[in-house]
Design a protein that fits this description.
- About 45% of the residues lie in helices and about 15% in strands.
- The protein is α/β, with parallel strands linked by helices.
- The chain has a 6-stranded parallel β-sheet, with helices on both faces.
- Helix 1 links the parallel strand 1 and strand 2.
- The radius of gyration is 16 Å and the shape is globular.
- The N and C termini lie close together (about 10 Å).
């Protein structure tokens, strides 16, 4: 079984390092770092160009937006979909305005410090863990300011693809129990509207669940695997 993992803003494919290490030996994780392209359709094309012929798809946060574009383009290649701390909907006007304001004051020189300084996305119990803080800074450094700007623009421009969650694709939705970036209630409501969707909350995780609870994420994926082709 192959799973293509798609990362979020401010991190690279390496955010899934501990998740893939904990998967059973017969599950092969592919963790590309998404190129600095400013629309999810182009990013989906890049993912499909290097993905196995058929695969399961796991999109975390921004990676979930790209995953929905991949699903739209190549439904026949996607055996199952996992969304983590993400959404199939488009940005609201308010969200678009906030992102535009962020870009208007963006300073590439301070990007790494800004991207890695806030501990708010972590679960309260994880905010003082030096290993997680260091990993987050390492990922932001590798990700780069250029990639951040492109991906924020892609986030703003993405369209609503909620209808694709009713296309019969087996879906697993993972939410950190204390996600303050994509509210847990909103994720649960989206998952409830989808067809053939299992919703799982990961205890002890905020928005950064692949970093905070990699073993629980791997276990959820391994359990889900037995229910999908």
């Amino acid at each position: 079984m192959d799973i293509v993992f798609l990362h979020g803003l401010n991190n690279t494919g390496d955010v899934f390092r501990d998740v893939t290490a904990a998967l059973p030996a017969d599950i092969h994780g592919h963790c590309p770092t998404l190129p600095p392209l400013d629309n999810v359709e182009a990013l989906a094309d890049a993912v499909l160009a290097s993905a196995p012929p058929r695969f399961h798809l796991a999109g975390y946060s921004f990676g979930g937006y790209v995953a929905m574009a991949v699903l739209e383009k190549a439904r026949d290649r996607v055996l199952g979909l996992c969304l983590m701390g993400s959404s199939a909907a488009a940005d609201s006007d308010e969200q678009k305005t906030k992102r535009q304001q962020t870009l208007s004051t963006f300073d590439p020189a301070t990007y790494v410090d800004t991207a890695s300084s806030s501990v708010a996305p972590f679960h309260p119990d994880n905010r003082e863990r030096p290993d997680l803080v260091a990993r987050r800074r390492e990922l932001a450094t590798a990700y780069s300011a250029q990639r951040y700007v492109a991906h924020v623009r892609a986030t703003m421009l993405r369209k609503d693809r909620s209808h694709l969650l009713n296309a019969g694709v087996p879906t697993l939705w993972l939410a950190g129990s204390h996600d303050a970036v994509v509210p847990v209630k909103r994720q649960a409501e989206e998952a409830a509207k989808a067809q053939n969707c299992a919703y799982v909350e990961i205890p002890g995780a905020g928005h950064l669940l692949p970093l905070e609870q990699p073993l629980a994420v791997a276990e959820a994926l391994a359990t889900w695997r037995v229910r999908t082709p």
